[in-house]
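Let us begin with a simple case.
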Amino acid sequence: MFESKAGVLFVGGLGFFFFAFVSNALVPMFMYQELPEQPVSELTNANLMYEFEDLERRWPEQFQAAFGSATKEKCAEALELGRQIYIGEGCWHCHSQFVRPVSNESLRFGPVAKSEEFQNALQRPVMFGTRRVGPDLSREGGRHSNDWHAVHFFRPRTVSTGSPMPDYPWFFDGSADKPTRRGLAIMTYVQWLGSWLESYPYYEEYQPVGERTEEEE
């Protein structure tokens, strides 16, 4: 058998499979095994805080009832809850979170995914996704305003014609301008995705007041 053409192809196929497994799974694992895993409390960067504070400005009553004030601790709390909601609602069935180096995906979804981006508590398990009925969400943060996301979650086809995404009215108390704690949390999580990149839309223009220089005040 192994001397026939089919046998050679079979052995070759097994060899390439083993090579792919080693190069794509084992090598990165050993390369980054010493990289510390970031806890949720360390993921509330300036870009995300801008969005979290914006939620408080847009819906002060709902925000106060849900989280009180826009502190880093409350942002981490909302971020972790948003992640749980994202998983529980099955968002990962239709949205991936992994930009591959093929088919010009970086032109559509941003920079190709890097191993270090997944070394944090919110990537356990990693939300690679199963298919792309909707766009990849790795770089979704900052692309749309919180107003847009509120309407999109409440009734997707209002802002995205023909979208197969279902409505999520239970994220709101009756209308898109009354997000609940769950609604605010899922928006926080979506705005976090890609917030660690320098290409994030608010990276240049926003710094917490305590971090600004005298010249900037």
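The second case is a distinct protein. As before, the sequence precedes its structure tokens.
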Amino acid sequence: MKLLNKVVVITGSGGGIGEACARRFAAEGAKVVVTDINSVGTKRVADSIGTVGLAGDITAEDTVRAVADLARSTYGEVDIWFSNAGYAGPPLAGDIADDRLWDLSWRLHVMSHVYAVRQMLPSMLQRGDGYLLQTASVVAMATHPDKAAYAVTKHAALAFSEWLALTYRPKGIKVSCFCPGAMRTPMLMADGIPADHPAVQNAATPEEVAERLVRGIEAEQFLIVDSTLGPDSLSTKGADYERWISDMAPLINS
């Protein structure tokens, strides 16, 4: 799908990857609707690309509905909904005991995607066209050594994308899941990694990620990745799960 003249909603677009995508998609000619929990970032990005925005918490279904209504009333039916917002939080060895983190991770990484699909599917199915794009993570195909809630809910996000693709692609709905590795955003820096660390230096910039997503959307490919790390992990699991567990365990316990 080409982005020219398409109506696109991008959640988490008040900064980071979402902001870079909002700018890049707009440069392609898309009519972008900005939304983020950060009201200052939402207004800044929306004003800078000459569009509308709505600040709010997309873990609340009413907010997702309001964003969808804003998009429709401003530009018409939504062509692409990009569920991009996420939260990793700092490394927490004991996060398995933090109910609040589990609840937030589930609502943000899974239920916000579900809420978006509820809003988008009726009109997309009626038209026989539309695009549902979700951000998961390379973690969804592997795991994360410090963040149980993040790893588990990102697995769930990928599983939901798979189900959407299997169920609705035959009905004309495009579905993609973006599973990136480390990206040079505030989320990565929140882990306390020094700026000169190789993980930061080798991470993709938001602009590089946005370009990759433009290409992925044009190709309408299901799995959009930026390295072989995730697919290689999936291959190892499928071929020898015991080996994968053995290989990953030292990383978890280092």
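Residues 99-127 form the longest helix (29 residues). The radius of gyration is 18 Å.
Keep these points in mind for the review questions at the end of the chapter.
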